[in-house]
Specification:
Elements: E1 4-5, E2 10-12, H1 19-27, H2 41-58, E3 62-67, E4 70-79, E5 90-96, H3 105-118, E6 125-131, H4 135-143, E7 147-155, E8 167-174
Antiparallel strand pairs: 1-2, 2-3, 3-4, 4-5, 6-8, 7-8
Helix pairs in contact: 1-2
Length: 178
């Protein structure tokens, strides 16, 4: 499968030239505010390699978001692999560099990812999760037509017990709701 295009963005396969801005983005404490910690260079490189390989293997996944040749971060789809009740679901997610915030890029790119999920992949439902404290991402989820069920609050098993980031919410959207 190929790239996705929106009005302003190209969601594409990763390039070696994305490695540096990816590492810088993941070292930014504001970008990583709702993760346990910013990533070291080694962790960023390892995640870059995993994300790019998964996209190449499946033909879909977490695409690099490109605006006129500039790498902004990622948006796309990934199977949920952590030990949670919705393990195996497909998640839509995003992480953008701080300079790309507040311009509608996450919503625009996530809409294209959802269209791909429901169209090309024929999925019945897509989920998205974030820390309870991450109101910005929750607003994106709401703009995407995703809904939060009270029963979909959970403790993220990959976040240390006692961390204020451990409580998470799960938003869902069904193909039939689009």
């Amino acid at each position: 499968m190929g790239d996705l295009r929106t009005e302003r963005l190209l969601l594409r396969h990763w390039r070696e030239s994305d490695r540096e801005p990816w590492a810088a983005m993941n070292a930014d404490p504001e970008v990583m505010e709702f993760f346990p910690a910013p990533l070291t260079r080694e962790q960023a490189d390892a995640s870059f390699d995993r994300i790019a390989a998964a996209l190449d293997d499946r033909g879909w996944g977490l695409w690099a978001v490109d605006l006129d040749g500039e790498f902004l971060g990622f948006t796309g789809l990934a199977p949920v692999t952590v030990e949670v009740p919705f393990r195996g679901a497909t998640e839509v997610g995003w992480r953008l560099a701080r300079h790309a915030w507040g311009r509608g890029f996450a919503t625009e790119a996530a809409r294209a990812s959802l269209a791909f999920a429901f169209g090309e992949l024929g999925l019945d439902e897509v989920v998205s999760m974030t820390a309870v404290l991450n109101e910005r991402s929750q607003r994106v989820m709401q703009r995407l037509g995703m809904r939060l069920a009270e029963s979909d609050e959970f403790e993220h098993p990959s976040v240390p017990v006692g961390s204020p980031l451990r409580p998470h919410v799960l938003y869902r959207v069904a193909a039939s709701a689009r």
